[in-house]
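Progress note, sequence design subtask.
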């Protein structure tokens, strides 16, 4: 599933494609379930004639702000992606929404597994209201992270994956941040010392900034893997330290990376550096 760096890469590409200020003249929905907030006909009526005022990211959502105050929030889920076409090509069977622009271009939503969703709402808080803080915002400090973790008995990895706790993190970047901070993913959040929280805060920001700088992470060669607007692959896979590095030597201590299950998610950990007894850092 695309995470903060991948979604931000797509937003950056959409902005570079000069979509702001463009008028939507029509929308064709080929898979009705993609539209989560209304029947396809209602969606088509409500979005036609609207101007795209801005495009931005919040958590893992791509947000199209429209001129009437409405918001189109798109969640890519597992395999969703956008393609910007010139209007001549016919969409294939995996294109489930086509947004027609007044300049002749077409924005295709391509989604092999059909899990992606569009939310067109007149009250943005309906979609955005419960999301946690943005980890790259200046207001997200180590002290604020410490305050949020205080009294939390939940294990640290599932908590970091919870979008109501911290927005935008997913399996890849949580594994990478926990490794960088020497914190075992099964540790209770409330057990972390402030030195560990400060290390985690810095690691979260570093791995996300690196992911954005590298235009996201593309794993494998399948067509359903992450590709940005220009069908370009993310370059961050080579920078990963533990994610999908099972049995390979830890870059820090050379012990083998293990894959374990945490909250039903595959999790990659160096149990020499990230000790489950909390001994990854000197206490």
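Output:
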């Amino acid at each position: 599933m695309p995470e903060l760096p991948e979604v931000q890469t797509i937003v950056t590409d959409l902005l570079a494609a000069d979509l702001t200020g463009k008028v939507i003249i029509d929308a064709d929905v080929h898979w009705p379930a993609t539209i989560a907030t209304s029947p396809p006909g209602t969606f088509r009526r409500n979005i036609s004639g609207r101007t795209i005022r801005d495009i931005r990211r919040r958590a893992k959502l791509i947000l199209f702000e429209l001129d009437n105050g409405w918001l189109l929030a798109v969640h890519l889920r597992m395999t969703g992606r956008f393609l910007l076409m010139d209007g001549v090509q016919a969409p294939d069977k995996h294109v489930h929404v086509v947004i027609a622009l007044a300049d002749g271009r077409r924005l295709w939503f391509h989604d092999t597994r059909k899990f992606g969703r569009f939310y067109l709402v007149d009250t943005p808080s309906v979609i955005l209201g419960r999301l946690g803080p943005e980890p790259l915002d200046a207001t997200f400090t180590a002290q604020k992270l410490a305050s949020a973790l205080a009294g939390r008995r939940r294990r640290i990895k599932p908590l970091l994956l919870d979008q109501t706790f911290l927005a935008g993190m997913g399996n890849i970047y949580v594994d990478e941040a926990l490794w960088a901070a020497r914190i075992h993913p099964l540790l209770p959040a409330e057990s972390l010392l402030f030195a560990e929280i400060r290390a985690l805060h810095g690691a979260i920001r570093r791995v996300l900034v690196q992911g954005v700088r590298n235009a996201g992470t593309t794993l494998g060669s399948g067509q359903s893997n992450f590709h940005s607007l220009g069908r370009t692959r993310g370059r961050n896979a080579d920078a990963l330290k533990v994610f999908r590095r099972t049995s390979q030597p830890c870059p820090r201590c050379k012990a083998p990376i293990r894959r374990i299950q945490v909250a039903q998610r595959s999790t990659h950990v160096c149990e020499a550096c990230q000790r489950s007894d909390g001994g990854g850092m000197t206490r």
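Residues 80 and 111 are 4 Å apart (CA to CA). Work on this subtask will continue into the next period as scheduled.
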